[in-house]
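Possible regression after last week's pipeline update?

I re-ran a chain I had predicted before the update to compare outputs. Posting the input and the new output here so someone can diff against the archived version. Not blocking, just want to make sure nothing changed silently.
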Amino acid sequence: MKLTKKLLSMLIALTMVFTLAIPAFAAGDLSITITNEKTGHIYEAYQIFKGDVSVNKEGVFKLSNIQWGSGITPEGQNALKNFKNGSYESAAELAAVITETNKKEFATEVAKYLGTSSGTSVEADKTYKISNLEAGYYLIKDTKAGDG
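New output (post-update):
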């Protein structure tokens, strides 16, 4: 049950990350906000991919020059090159194949190779904010279950 709950938390967080509207462009000024009716949780952000963020005239955000982020171990970078029996030479090639249908499977695989956390949440009024992040894709891990 706990494993299922943690995987669900990671999936929800990964979904939020992939649909994240980035409020600023300066490195270290970005943040992720998680709303949860339950209190006492602690979320950690792990940068899976990093890159340069831009926005087009329609307001759509795009990450380019994609490279491995600081949240993945070198062992994980090597292992994930074979995600879904692929043979990806770069982080950019791998990032391009992550879709709505395979993101849960990707999050499960990534969770095996987490390295250094990029930040830990601060809770305020049922919201959890992780600040001072650089542009990229993040996996959010619920490390301490709160009151539910």
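Follow-up from reviewer: compared with the archived run. Residues 77 and 117 are 16 Å apart (CA to CA). Marking as no regression found.
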